[in-house]
């Protein structure tokens, strides 16, 4: 992804957050070029170095520009782990985007590359996802990454050894320069 596309996506996210926290409806982004491609993405918000919200859309079934706009609004207002972001907080937010590649089914967990791959694990109607950067930030090895993704899904930590479906994906991760 070229720097101009990255900047456009970051601007879409910030503009959507500013509009939403000001009580306005975010403007629809122009869906041209990369922004028109159907891709999954996550919007992560940080304040003071701490996570402040993160929401994403995994399936590549909507234009990337629309996904980033919608997920930015949801990350600042609907992440159940946090109270909604206020308009006073917006200037202090740092936005990070993770643009997802395709999901690839994993039959051999040894093929998972910590630092490159994100994970999705699903079993019994429960699904958990962790972005590639999470394992790096926490200094996890492959087994810990698999275990934590199971826990994120609300599954026993060893579900990945007991029939859970596993997918990996790569993500291009970038954020605002502060």
Describe the protein's architecture and organization.
It is a single chain. With 178 residues, the protein is of the alpha+beta class. It is built from four helices and seven strands, in the order αββαββββααβ. Strands 1, 2, 3, 4, 5, 6 and 7 form a seven-stranded antiparallel β-sheet that branches. The protein is globular, with a radius of gyration of 16 Å.
Question: What order do the helices and strands come in, and which of them pair?
Answer:
Blueprint: H1 3-21, E1 41-47, E2 50-57, H2 64-77, E3 93-100, E4 104-105, E5 117-123, E6 126-130, H3 132-137, H4 142-152, E7 165-175
Antiparallel strand pairs: 1-2, 1-3, 3-7, 4-7, 5-6, 5-7
Helix pairs in contact: 1-2
Chain-averaged pLDDT: 96
**What top-tier CATH class of the largest domain fits best?**
Alpha Beta
Structural class designation: alpha+beta
CATH architecture of the largest domain: 2-Layer Sandwich
Tally of discrete structural domains: 2
Pattern of helices and strands: HEEHEEEEHHE
Shape, please?
globular
